Predict the structure of alpha-L-fucosidase.
Amino acid sequence: MIEKIFLSLLIFILINKAENLKYNPDWSSLDTRPLPKWYDDAKVGIFIHWGVFSVPSFRSEWFWWDWQGDKPTSDVVDFMKNNYPPNFEYADFAPEFKAEFFDPLQWVSLLNASGAKYVVLTSKHHEGYTLWPSAYSWNWNSNDVGPHKDLVGDLAQAIRTNSSLRFGLYHSLFEWFNPLYLSDKNQSFKTQTYVKEKALPSLYEIVNKYEPEVVWSDGDWEAQDSYWNSTAFIAWLYNESPVKDSVVVNDRWGSGVLCQHGDFYTCQDNFNPGKLLSHKWENCMPLDNNSWGYRRNLKLSDILTIEEVIKSLAETVSCGGNILINIGPTKEGTIAPIFEERLRQLGEWLSINGEAIYESKPWKYQNDTKNSDVWYTTNGDLVYAILLKYPQSSLKVELGSVQITEATQINILGNDEKLQWVESPEGGVVIDLHSVDASSLISKWAWTFKLENISYQKC
Ligand SMILES: *[C@@H]1O[C@H](CO)[C@@H](O)[C@H](O)[C@H]1NC(C)=O
Ligand SMILES: *[C@@H]1O[C@H](CO)[C@@H](O)[C@H](O)[C@H]1NC(C)=O
Ligand SMILES: *[C@@H]1O[C@H](CO)[C@@H](O)[C@H](O)[C@H]1NC(C)=O
Ligand SMILES: *[C@@H]1O[C@H](CO)[C@@H](O)[C@H](O)[C@H]1NC(C)=O
Ligand SMILES: *[C@@H]1O[C@H](CO)[C@@H](O)[C@H](O)[C@H]1NC(C)=O
Ligand SMILES: *[C@@H]1O[C@H](CO)[C@@H](O)[C@H](O)[C@H]1NC(C)=O
Ligand SMILES: *[C@@H]1O[C@H](CO)[C@@H](O)[C@H](O)[C@H]1NC(C)=O
């Protein structure tokens, strides 16, 4: 009898275990997982590149590699020669990473004001320095050297207590100069010492400790996913981790995986294909055209204008993507006012035009057939046409993709006034803006036509 009860209990446990282990550690199984809805709805995220590279804050976050990697660049080599003693090492920058003005609640208030719905912080870039007190990064983490703080934990907590943004983490699989990695590489990645002792334990550590809902992997490309044990890790993430129901991962999990597998594709930096893709994707894009990390010699002309940011946002969302806009904080833990201004402008635009962005879907057409400054989204029965250039002189906007009906109504988001329009000779619509007092328009930089009761041109 006891044996019978014990046996049924065992079977019960095994069945339940099997049910929890829905996904196998291979791509054909992992690729069947439905995308968690929150991610597609969110559309806008903020990327944050922060680390020891924020101390020299010169050229880019690749500073160490550009100084001492395989092909040093002369600007970085000269910068070191001219400004530091000959025996100065990269690790000597770390004590200068003090983050003394880092105020997580102030960051959160700005991140929320940008209108973004999620944040992705570099927990560890290719330099290997961790922004959390990792058990696997002795004396090369933000608690032992530099700020003496758990930067990941402090930001995660502030985001969760003072906003409804989702928190995500970037994590570089490889480390340029890690001896264990270099030794595996030397043996054509037939050994996995670095993966077993460093990369995987770090990944499990950040997920268990900080429960990121985005795991944004990078630094994968020199080795195959089998070296990184990527599919085993992602299967654990989907089946058993504390974020198994809500987490999303990108596509940087080994050479050949990019643009092929993962919850969303990043394909390449600044990825913006200009056409609808059948798989969810993300455009990661720095506000500083030349660097993801902060640069002290940054110029205003290096920074995308708010018009450029909104254009990328409209193109991306129309084509089914999310946009991940990057800022690089300083070594002091401040966010430069120029980045702050862009994020606040973005938030201002989204506070008026957000119904065309959040939770929207790609429409029948992505860009207009007649007007290259118009990008479409849809939500329920409504269609939105985002106009990137206001026709100052003609005061007419022709939409070639739209077909009007008897019940069609058009207004600009932020202004309720119904607009005049006529059917164009080819069957589209010409919206007449003569009746609009341009100074009364609430939206700046780009304008969204809300189109009610329309159909589309069949081609
Ligand atoms: C953060 O949230 C707490 C409680 O949720 C609130 O008391 C506090 O005022 C908030 N702080 C800021 C800076 O918003
Ligand atoms: C976040 O921003 C939204 C809209 O931009 C605002 O309504 C909300 O009050 C903000 N939340 C916090 C906690 O600051
Ligand atoms: C790589 O291998 C060569 C010989 O096979 C050895 O001399 C060298 O020290 C190794 N380098 C590393 C980083 O393990
Ligand atoms: C990594 O994968 C190999 C086989 O691909 C497996 O033998 C090993 O146990 C895995 N290691 C970890 C730490 O997941
Ligand atoms: C950013 O770089 C791209 C490509 O190099 C260029 O087309 C664009 O004009 C630049 N924008 C700014 C603001 O520097
Ligand atoms: C926009 O639409 C036209 C077709 O109307 C197409 O030829 C063009 O490549 C599209 N994409 C962009 C980025 O303009
Ligand atoms: C027009 O669109 C609105 C909002 O989508 C909808 O409620 C209404 O039924 C539509 N009217 C007609 C005549 O189709």
Q: What stands out?
A: The chain has two domains: 19-356, 374-456. Residues 259 and 267 are 5 Å apart (CA to CA). Residues 2-20 form the longest helix (19 residues). The two ends are 73 Å apart (CA to CA).
